[in-house]
From TrEMBL:
Transmembrane annotation, as ranges: none
Gene Ontology terms for molecular function: DNA-binding transcription factor activity; sequence-specific DNA binding
UniProt keyword list: DNA-binding, Transcription, Transcription regulation
Protein name: Helix-turn-helix domain-containing protein
SUPFAM superfamilies from the UniProt entry: Homeodomain-like
Coiled coil, from the record: none
Lineage per the UniProt record: Bacteria, Pseudomonadati, Pseudomonadota, Gammaproteobacteria, Lysobacterales
Top-level taxonomic group: Bacteria
Sequence ranges assigned to domain HTH araC/xylS-type in this UniProt record: 219-317
Length: 323
């Protein structure tokens, strides 16, 4: 199965070597990445086992969730023009960069940024469960400078941040639901994920005030607010703290779009509340809590101010059903 040879519109695809004859498994697995790396199994006496969920766009950006048996992987000099942002969930890899020393990447090291254009070898002796994003070189260099991995190396460990936690949750959701998406939804989900990954990387760059980074900050702030809508403690200050920016800058990037942080959160909460009011299984009190209101009176007041009637009246008018 050669994903790069697929003429259909890109979408998330699942692959499992267990569906192939034992003697063909590894070759089929290697065909997933024909122009990126050279791969070889560590235990040649056993049938190779691996599975993946892969999305690869025409420009080479994309994502791969990979579970493999022990594997040796070689990145040749200039083999790819992308950076790979990786996260290991289980297992570990020994990484040798060019003729330099060796270091370990595992779950404890968090996100790792790899320059796939540089010579590198990774060895997983016990198998590995990992997820990787393939990011455009120009955008990564715009955020992190001309040498994103530092000192002409191929690998850079990145610290964990609240933004990193949001990115992890996003990647987890993609691996669970990606194959259920059609081509259009797959492209939209992948674009949003890459934007979120770039926002995570932007935290470690020097040119903080460029317009492109403002756009990344706005997008990341919106996604953080959406993820935290049920938290009544959500404020502009908590958003700024999670994204590691000043409140002043956060206010500015929203104001430039004729929005406010509080207004954006309020609009999302009230939109969610109307959706839930159509489901009779939710009590109005439960809806208030799920939409981030600490008590029912506060929710009723905000709802009536926006829609001109109490939540119960709106539900009765629009006819809630048990779905």
């Amino acid at each position: 199965m050669d994903i790069e040879a697929n003429d259909a519109a890109p979408r998330f695809m699942a692959f499992d070597t267990d569906g192939a004859p034992a003697h063909e498994r590894f070759e089929q697995w290697r065909s997933l990445f024909p122009q990126v790396v050279d791969i070889s199994p560590v235990e040649r006496s056993r049938p190779y086992r691996a599975n993946a969920i892969v999305y690869l766009a025409e420009d080479g950006t994309g994502m791969a969730r990979i579970r493999t048996a022990p594997t040796l992987t070689h990145f040749a000099e200039g083999s790819s023009d992308h950076f790979m942002l990786g996260l290991i969930a289980d297992g570990h890899s020994q990484v040798r960069q060019g003729r330099g020393g060796e270091e370990t990447a595992d779950a404890a090291t968090g996100f790792n940024l790899m320059d796939c254009s540089r010579q590198m070898r990774t060895l997983s002796r016990s198998g590995q469960d990992s997820v990787h994003l393939f990011l455009p070189r120009a955008r990564v260099m715009q955020l992190l400078g001309p040498d994103p991995t530092g000192a002409r190396g191929a690998l850079r460990h990145l610290p964990d941040t609240p933004m990193g936690q949001i990115l992890k949750a996003n990647l987890s959701a993609l691996t669970r639901y990606g194959t259920a998406l059609d081509a259009r939804a797959s492209a939209q989900a992948m674009e949003a994920t890459i934007t979120l990954a770039l926002a995570y990387l932007a935290q470690f760059g020097a040119a903080e005030e460029t317009p492109d980074l403002d756009a990344l900050l706005f997008d990341a702030a919106c996604r953080y607010i959406e993820a935290q809508l049920d938290d009544p403690r959500l404020t502009a200050e908590s958003v700024a703290r999670a994204l590691r920016c000043s409140r002043t800058r956060l206010y500015r990037v929203f104001a430039e779009r004729d929005l406010s942080v509080a207004g954006y959160a309020r609009d999302l909460r009230l939109a969610r509340s109307r959706t839930l009011l159509l489901d009779a299984r939710w009590s109005i009190g439960e809806i208030a809590l799920h939409c981030g209101y600490g008590d029912l009176p506060a929710f009723s007041k905000a709802f009536k101010r926006r829609f001109g009637m109490a939540p119960g009246e709106w539900r009765q008018l629009h006819g809630a059903t048990t779905r």
